[in-house]
Amino acid sequence: MNAIEATSVELTYSDGTEAVRGINLAVPEGEFFGFLGPNGAGKTTAIKTLTTLLRPTAGTVAVNGFDVIEEPRAVRASIGYMAQETSIDKELTARENVSFACEAYGVPRGERADRIDELLDLVDLADVAEKRADGFSGGMRKRLDVATALVHRPPLVFLDEPTTGLDPKARIDLWEYFREINRQGTTVFLTTQYLEEADQLCDRLSVIQDGRIVATDSPEALKSQVGGDVLDITLADASEDDRTRARRVAERSGLFEDGTVEPTDEGISVTSKRARRSGTDLLVALRDAGLTVTGFDVRSPTLDDVFLAITGERANDERDRTESGGPGEPVETEVGR
Ligand SMILES: Nc1ncnc2c1ncn2[C@@H]1O[C@H](COP(=O)(O)OP(=O)(O)OP(=O)(O)O)[C@@H](O)[C@H]1O
């Protein structure tokens, strides 16, 4: 059975905002599934629709075999949900918070003590179980949130941007707990703005933009659409003239025959499997052409690069949309908030 099955789901807010515009999803049991998209793409709206917090305007959703409109209680009893905003009470200790969640989810009294110990252990908070949460770091609070979402041993857990705002170490720690939950058999549905996070964790993911799914595949397959690493070049003079010249130099250098060259605000960006190997050769070619380079960075693809490869548009860049729209044509605005 699929843990999640969504067909033609739409969600329009009362002010007319069409946040989700016809989503189809099938997430098999045991999968670590991701929803990847920029701010305002519709991730939270979608997750709230799947978890019964919002009623779909159109379409059907079955979660663990239960219909979200007909059987919302059964859906809620069979899922864990970690919202973007923390649900923990800072006045309470870690143990009290998990205990409170046990009560809310109706975990039988006799099972609570063991369950609480097991969960605090899972998220590495056993040592601070008796400490009040107001002294916890952001990462510790998120871990406590994870524990409270799991008290009733749900077979499916929804995590809404669980690592946004955390430092890299806390983020990586949290990933380990998510992997462990999934290893233990729980299906995970995660939303994120970070390609790296989706890449590290997800078996498959959907890329969402403007309320629509624009691609669904494994992280490897999506990244391979980008076609390599990305070399960002910053020019001393980023006038249109110099950027065009730099682009021509890169294209004619023969260094990146597999790749693409795009102008950016600061200079140019080359995407190629040879970006790492041939970067310094390009610098020499640019210098020989009389162009001054002030910055040089080779990096793995980001969400924005994946969007560009899939849709031909940057995820958060109105300028590109304006250019591709052409003068006089309507321009879509505002992906972010
Ligand atoms: N209660 C609401 N009423 C009207 N519009 C809303 C409401 N909540 C969200 N929106 C709009 O719906 C769209 C999708 O928002 P949503 O929060 O689902 O995106 P998101 O991908 O989760 O973004 P974020 O990463 O910022 O959480 C946005 O245009 C947003 O402004």
Automatic annotation (TrEMBL):
Descriptive protein name: ABC transporter related protein
Bias (Basic and acidic residues) ranges: 314-323
Main location: membrane
Residue ranges constituting the ABC transporter domain according to the UniProt record: 4-235
UniProt-listed InterPro entries: AAA+_ATPase (IPR003593), ABC_transporter-like_ATP-bd (IPR003439), ABC_transporter-like_CS (IPR017871), ABC_transporter_ATP-binding (IPR050763), DrrA (IPR005894), DrrA1/2-like_C (IPR025302), P-loop_NTPase (IPR027417)
Membrane topology: Peripheral membrane protein
NCBIfam families per record: drrA
A biological process from GO: daunorubicin transport
Family: Belongs to the ABC transporter superfamily. Drug exporter-1 (DrugE1) (TC 3.A.1.105) family.
Organism of this sequence: Halalkalicoccus jeotgali (strain DSM 18796 / CECT 7217 / JCM 14584 / KCTC 4019 / B3)
Annotated compartments: Cell membrane
Keywords for this protein: ATP-binding, Cell membrane, Membrane, Nucleotide-binding, Translocase, Transport
Region (Disordered): 250-273, 314-337
A Pfam family assignment: DrrA1-3_C
Entry coiled-coil feature ranges: none
GO molecular function: ATP binding; ATP hydrolysis activity
Lineage summary: Archaea, Methanobacteriati, Methanobacteriota, Stenosarchaea group, Halobacteria
One GO CC annotation: plasma membrane
SMART domains: AAA (SM00382)
